[in-house]
Amino acid sequence: MTDRRGAWLDIDLDAIRHNIALIRSVVGDAAVAQVVKAEAYGHGMIPVSKAIEPVVDALCVATLDEALELRPHVSKRIIMLYPVPHAAVPEALEIDVELPVMSAADFEAIQNAVPEGHAPVRIHLGVETGMGRGGLQPENVVAVAAAAHADPRFELSGLWSHLHSPEDPPTSDGQLLRFDIAATALREARVPVPPRHAAASGGIFTGDEPALDFVRPGVASYGVLDEGLPIAPDAKAAADSLRPAMSLSARPIAFSRVPEGGSVGYGGTWTADRSSRIAVLPVGYGDGYLRGSQPGGQVLVRGQRLPLVGRISMDAVTVDVTDLPGLDYSEEFVLMGSQGGETITAGELARRRNTISWEVLTSMAHRLARVYHPSAGTAGVDQRIPAGTGADTHDR
Q1: Hey, how many other C-beta atoms are within 10 angstroms of the C-beta on 300?
Q2: Could you give the 3-state DSSP secondary structure of residue 8?
Q3: Stretch (H or E) spanning 305
Q4: Which residues are known catalytic residues?
Q5: Handedness of CA 371, 375, 379, 381 (dihedral sign)
Q6: Which of 35, 51, 197, 299 could form a Cys-Cys staple with 218, CB 3.0–4.6 A?
């Protein structure tokens, strides 16, 4: 099916499962709540969730739309990471998701929506420790927790926060101190302390954030870490063994011969200093392969790096293939991933775009077909692409 476009993402589901096993080796007995928001960081929320459901304890999403899309496909716990708009709480209750409470108003909205006799609604009390995006102040946690504990319609399932600079131990220490103030206040008020979670990918591998009762890995499970992250010594072997799960490939749809002095692309920003052969690949910023990948961007073909030339357009990039004669329409070009002994990582693309690996991955979440490689007998189908128009479920 990728022949209809000539550009696709390969998604290695086995790599994701492998990475989750490595995370478990680092966090010990802590439960793993895998983050699958934003199409599982571009990898495809539904096929990834189905493949990893047996090896995680919960799945985390950001929006109610994501939860509604995911729930028919999994029975695992689904934890919301952002509050549901208060008017939509009744809809959330219908699909058994775990809701964050970031304010007294959030709790009141849920209270008003839950009918008497309803199965206990699992809630996670969010503590503001310095991220600045909302949450209960540590000194205000007890009032909400006590009210929920006394109401049989609720189950306190989490006390959580999010640390904004895992690479900076003093900053994380300060946030964790505020987090512990909330837990201590609950103990003193004789309110059971729910399972605590604060560590995401960075905290797991730097060792700055304790695993507590839950961890919420995101990008690390997809085989990527911040390249500047200081890795804890006891986590280094696991970090070094992470396997990127996504690669981006394309086959040329055209070749052109550009004379010396001729230009390529919008604005004519690249001028040939010799007679040059140019390959056109059907992928561009409309697919998330952003203009910031130039200048200096490269692709792999036959295990060699070749330069991108000209501006990246919405639907195409151009490659100078003059130094590699004999290429034809069957060649596979790798824009992100490995070929031969060479690798272009998400981190390399991020540096060129002056951004982060997270954005590189999630920006490719929509138009490109995904080819899923089975994991433990599970072949994923991208539910966002209608049958026959994109996703290929077979090994290539």
Answers
A1: 23
A2: strand
A3: strand 304-309
A4: 37, 266
A5: negative
A6: 35
Specify the pLDDT at position 382: 37
What is the distance between the alpha carbons of residues 302 and 177, in angstroms, rounded to a whole number?
53
Q: What is the Cα–Cα distance from 284 to 25, expressed in whole angstroms?
A: 38
Q: How many CA atoms lie within 13 A of 235 on its CB side?
A: 26
Is there a contact between 219 and 42 (Cβ–Cβ < 8 Å)? no
Pairwise CA distance, residues 259 & 23, whole Å: 53
**H-type alpha helices, 28-124:** 37-42, 45-52, 64-70, 89-93, 104-113
Instruction: Identify the segments of the chain with pLDDT beneath 50.
Output: 1, 375-396
Q: What is the dihedral of CA 90, 96, 97, 100, to 10 degrees?
A: 60
| Integer Cα distance of 23 and 220 in angstroms | 8
Percent over 70 (pLDDT), the chain: 93
Task: Read off the pTM.
Answer: 0.91
Give the H/E segment covering residue 269: none
Q: Are 113 and 161 in contact (CB under 8 A)?
A: no
- Tell me, what's the pLDDT at 394? 31
CA-to-CA dists, residue 332 to 144, 249, 327, angstroms = 57, 7, 10
Taking alpha carbons only, the member of 112, 120, 113, 73 closest to residue 96 is 120
Dihedral sign for Cα atoms in the order 112, 104, 193, 150: negative
pLDDT digits (tens, 9 = 90+) for 45-97: 999 999 999 999 999 999 999 999 999 999 999 999 999 999 999 999 999 99
- Kindly give, in sequence order, each residue whose CB lies less than 8 Å from that of residue 229, ignoring residues fewer than 6 positions away: 166, 167, 202, 205, 206
**Which backbone phi and psi does 278 adopt, to 5 degrees?**
-120, 130
Tell me what pLDDT residue 293 has. 67
> Under a CB-based contact definition with an 8 Å cutoff, are residues 69 and 383 in contact?
yes
DSSP state of 144: H
